[in-house]
Design a protein that fits this description.
The complex is a heterodimer. By secondary structure, chain A is an all-alpha fold. Chain A is built from 20 helices and no strands. In chain A, helix 12 packs across helix 20 and helix 19 runs antiparallel to helix 20. Chain A is globular and about 60 Å long. The two termini of chain A are about 25 Å apart. By secondary structure, chain B is mainly α. The chains are: A mainly alpha, B mainly alpha. At the A-B interface, helix 1, helix 4 and helix 18 of A face helix 1 and helix 17 of B.
Chain lengths: ~475, ~525
């Protein structure tokens, strides 16, 4: 069969699976007074549509920051404004100031779900298709298999179309950035990644590898001459993009500062809820949150995060090849996830995107709270089945494959996925003992944490042992 | 590809089953309540009351074996939500109820998966294992059957048990293709007692089994050798069929309820066409009648007041009269149907072409009944599309007919899902299935030339235009209030053309091979 028809079928399947998941419940459905992320997004539409820009990030009678105040960078706010504009045309009740709080209806749900699908179709899915076509080695069958696996990855589907978020935008833009860099269009890639950063500050997890790769490339091209011009071009592109996004907030330094304060909430504490990172897992044994002051916690996480990500990024600086870049992306995002401050479990998506068969069980408690057990079970099982079948059916002739296959063999299919399954099933079916009410979420996050730790160690070793000798720029997926 | 023989089949089957689970919370039609009501009836009432119970409008109108099937399901239903089995709980649809009913369809689809596997075995060729998986006829057939668009949206969104029933039909066909005729006959007898709509294709079975099974040999030119008649085989066949029917209807005959059961199974009061006209010959007839009536009024040949008020396009299911052309009664439709299938039956009687000739005749019986039957549902087109998939992976001409019939037939099912939430689902799935069937069949038969005539391609593109009009342009236009039935009318009439054309082409293939010497 022709490749284009296979690709179209994969994309259509990806869209239908997403829409099927979106038929289910969303975060905070029917749970006043705070509801959940769905209501947060709707509230941002209400705020951005009705209030002038200078009031978006400030506390006022019209804008109660305690009720889902805006805490993403300006691009999210502009996107919310656009959605609100369309929402107002369809039904003004959805975005009326104050009166639309907690508004839930089937039509509104259809509208919100459609907005997620539209941005996915515009940004995320084309990026994935192009990535698989141009930056994946192997036969066309292999490219289509990778495309299918990435498109059907349950994590992003369940979070975006179930729980309700717009990760497709930031991940899509980041992927366009990776695509640009992989194809040698450094300035355009930088612009795309800057846009991603301005959409969700979590993309900072990926920022260090981008920086080191581009800087390393400039150094290699020679700082006197070609490399210098490249550096200037990239820097200009990034600065202009940031300036355009922050334009309304640059007139008054208090504005800009308030936005920064909102998107980096340093008052909140080392972690919230149960998340599969070091601090939460450590908290099981030593109660860090109470032992240390919040300033000390900040410095602790900073030090460990840098320790986790710097080796990989410095290596990338010295060897700026695309292969190193991809590995550094994985290591950096995992490092930030494991050691950073105020991490949310959804941030694991950033690492997961690049190593496709990645354990999902850490997000289970979140999904259970949203009533998304059936979609979780269906998409995870389907994905596991598909990736096992496709990976075993493909050729194993490249060395590159072998390294990742070793990783998969060591960590996944006998051990991790079984463990993940067991933990998932027990946490759903059994009731925890009364003196340990959080037993299962903690077990889930601790297990996941160990898996992630193993992953980051493996990929660091891989990056330092160098690429396979036959070809220097090979895909690792 | 290194994958061995059949490892892809479980992945396809498991994949589609998981996929079906994603749509548990989607739109359900009234058929959901119908089946819930039948669960309640069979669970609570004694057998003698099953066909008399009418406190709900959704009375039992399937044959007894299906009622027993519902009875069996009701015992499992008890563990999900006992309240769904209460008789007067109209429109009860708690989450466990929905989960149970949806899962019951997904699980009973296991019969269909089994049948698909058997059919794939029948089309496996010698050279198959050397080709890549995606190019094998058995793989293509498996996808065309397991991931069939029409079956998916009718069963897993609209809600029905067609997968379960078609499993029996396809298994029976597969058994005949494998020359195990008694098993095939048994399966068909069970199927008839599960849903009597398959009476449409019973003549094909009757003629084929009588001619090819009861007469053990044919003469050299394909004619009958009367001496080879085997009474033993006829008796075996008869006893199998009688046993199944006896098991099914026996209790009701003993209780003297046979007339009541039959009146429930064959309700002729319902009108020539369903609220949405199935794209058959009568849809074209109705449309012609409407056109002539409008022309007559415009040209002052008819008075508008004299035209019957009950408009067919009003969406009500009632008996009505045509305005200009003569009205059609049930007996007329019966005669037309019989006339349309007689040549096919005669053809395989005179010159049997083995099991594939039988399959072709079965298709023609299904299509003939669809074209001229009384109160045909548009879902009945699946009885033609699914078995045609088997022929499509074997012959280029059948592949061309399949592409036309399946695309038209599947599109004609669009009005079944009219909610905006389901629009992306039906559009994407339709595109997926069409893309796959076109690319895969084209590649499979690439050595023999192109599959579709340019005019047929134009027709299919026109189908896209009709879709755009009905789903996008019309709802946003000012005519939506004045002429709400227009998209349905357009869909029905446009698809009738395609279905009629496919019917004629299939007939041509059968009759053409009749004049040639015996094929297989």
């Amino acid at each position: 069969m022709q490749t284009w028809s296979l690709i179209s079928i994969c994309v259509l399947l990806g869209v239908v699976v997403r829409w099927g998941v979106s038929l289910n419940s969303y975060s905070g459905a029917g749970k006043p007074p705070m509801f959940g992320d769905y209501e947060a997004q709707r509230h941002w539409q209400e705020v951005t549509y009705n209030l002038p820009i200078r009031e978006w990030y400030f506390n006022s009678t019209n804008n109660d920051l305690a009720y889902w105040g805006l805490d993403y960078p300006p691009l999210t706010a502009y996107h919310s404004w656009l959605c609100a504009y369309i929402a107002n045309i369809i039904n003004p009740e959805w975005v009326k100031l104050h009166k639309s709080r907690g508004h839930e209806s089937p039509e509104h749900k259809l509208f919100m779900r459609t907005t997620v699908l539209v941005v996915d179709l515009l940004l995320f899915i084309p990026a994935v298709v192009l990535y698989c076509l141009y930056l994946t080695d192997g036969s066309s069958k292999k490219k289509v298999s990778v495309l299918l696996c990435i498109l059907l990855y349950p994590g992003i589907i369940l979070i975006d179309y179930g729980h309700f978020q717009y990760n497709g935008v930031s991940l899509g833009l980041a992927l366009w950035g990776i695509l640009g860099l992989g194809l040698g269009w450094d300035a355009l890639g930088s612009i795309a990644f800057s846009l991603a950063l301005n959409y969700k500050q979590m993309e900072l997890y990926h920022a260090l590898p981008f920086f080191c790769y581009l800087l390393g490339k400039c150094f290699k091209a020679g700082l006197i001459g070609h490399g210098f011009f490249l550096l200037v071009r990239i820097a200009a592109a990034v600065v202009v993009t940031f300036a355009l996004c922050w334009l309304p907030f640059l007139s008054d330094p208090a504005q800009a500062l308030q936005v920064v304060r909102r998107i980096f909430p340093v008052a909140r504490g080392l972690f919230e809820d149960k998340v599969a990172n070091t601090w939460c897992s450590l908290n099981v044994l030593i109660k860090i949150r109470t032992l240390m002051s919040s300033d000390a916690q900040l410095y602790l996480s900073l030090v460990f995060t840098l320790l986790a990500v710097l080796p990989s990024s410095i290596r990338l600086l010295t060897r700026p090849t695309f292969w190193h870049f991809k590995l550094a992306l994985v290591n950096s995002s995992l490092g930030f996830f494991l050691f950073s401050y105020q991490v949310h479990e959804k941030s694991i998506l950033l690492a997961a995107l690049l190593i496709v068969p990645f354990p999902l069980c850490s997000m289970l408690p979140l999904l259970l709270k949203d009533g998304l057990l059936v979609p979780y079970a269906v998409t995870s099982t389907g994905f596991l089945l598909l990736s096992i079948y496709l990976l075993s059916a493909l050729d194993h002739c490249t060395e590159d494959e072998l390294q990742l296959t070793t990783y998969r063999k060591l960590f996944f299919f006998p051990f991790k996925s079984d463990l993940g399954c067991i933990v998932s099933i027990t946490s759903v079916t059994l009731d925890p003992p009364s003196h340990l009410p959080d037993l299962f979420p903690v077990l889930v996050s601790t297990t996941a944490y160990l898996l992630f730790l193993g992953t980051i160690i493996h990929f660091n070793i891989l990056q330092f042992s160098g690429p396979p000798s036959k070809k220097s720029q090979k895909k690792s997926n | 590809m290194a994958a061995d023989g059949w490892s892809w089949f479980p992945v396809l089957a498991a994949g589609v089953s998981l996929f079906k689970c994603l749509f548990i919370s989607s739109y359900r039609s009234t058929d959901f309540e119908v089946h819930r009501n039948w669960l309640a009836i069979t669970h609570n009432l004694p057998v003698s009351r099953w066909y008399h119970e009418n406190s709900s409008e959704w009375t039992l109108d399937y044959p007894p074996l299906f009622a027993w099937f519902e009875f069996g399901l009701s015992h499992v239903a008890r563990h999900f939500d006992g309240d769904m089995l209460l008789l007067h709980k109209q429109n009860y649809a708690s989450p466990p109820t929905v989960l149970f009913q949806r899962l019951s369809v997904i699980v009973t689809d296991g019969v269909f998966i089994l049948a698909a596997r058997e059919c794939c075995r029948c089309v496996q060729t010698q050279r198959a294992s050397q080709k890549a998986v995606l190019s094998r006829p058995s793989f293509i057939l498996a996808v065309l059957l397991l991931w069939n668009f029409g079956l998916f949206i009718v069963d897993h969104i609209h809600f029905q048990y067609n997968g379960f029933l078609f499993g029996f039909l396809l298994l029976s066909v597969a058994k005949h293709l494998q020359a195990q005729h008694l098993q095939g006959a048994l399966l068909f007898a069970i199927l008839l007692n599960l849903k009597h709509i398959y009476l449409y294709v019973a003549p094909a079975y009757g003629v084929y089994l009588l001619r090819s099974y009861c007469f053990t040999e044919s003469s050299t030119d394909g004619g009958i050798r009367w001496r080879s008649f085997s009474l033993l085989r006829l008796l075996a066949l008869g006893s199998v069929v009688m046993a199944v029917c006896g098991l099914s209807f026996g209790p009701f005959i003993v209780m003297g309820q046979l007339p009541q059961v039959l009146s429930r199974l064959f309700p002729f009061k319902r009108g020539l066409c369903h609220a949405y006209w199935a794209p058959n010959a009568w849809a074209l007839y109705n449309a012609l009648d409407k056109v002539l009536a409008t022309l007559g009024v415009r040209l002052k040949l008819l008075k508008e007041a004299e035209l019957p008020q009950a408009s067919m396009t009003g969406g009500l299911v009632q008996e009505f009269q045509h305005s200009v052309l003569p009205s059609v009664s049930p007996s007329v439709t019966l005669v037309c149907t019989l006339l349309s299938i007689l040549p096919a039956l005669a053809s395989i009687w005179r010159r049997p072409r083995g099991a594939r000739g039988f399959l072709r005749c079965l298709l023609l019986c299904a299509l003939g009944s669809y074209m001229f039957g009384w109160h045909v549902h548009e879902k009945a087109i699946l009885i033609a599309i699914l078995p045609l998939s088997i022929l499509a992976v074997e012959s280029r001409e059948d592949a061309g007919i399949f592409l036309l019939l399946s695309t038209t037939g599947h599109y004609s099912l669009f009005p079944l899902l009219f909610t905006p939430t389901e629009l992306p689902i039906k559009v994407c799935l339709m595109l997926m299935f069409s893309l796959f069937s076109f690319s895969a069949l084209r590649k499979l038969h690439s050595a023999d030339g192109s599959l579709l005539h340019p005019l047929e391609v134009v027709y299919l593109l026109g189908l896209g235009m009709v879709a755009l009009f009905s789903e996008v342009l019309f709802p946003l236009s000012p005519w939506k209030q004045r002429l709400p039935f227009l998209p349905l009318l357009a869909t029905s009439v446009y698809c009738s053309v395609g279905v009629s054309y496919s019917f004629l082409r299939l007939y041509a293939t059968l009759l053409r091979s009749d004049s040639k010497p015996k094929q297989h």
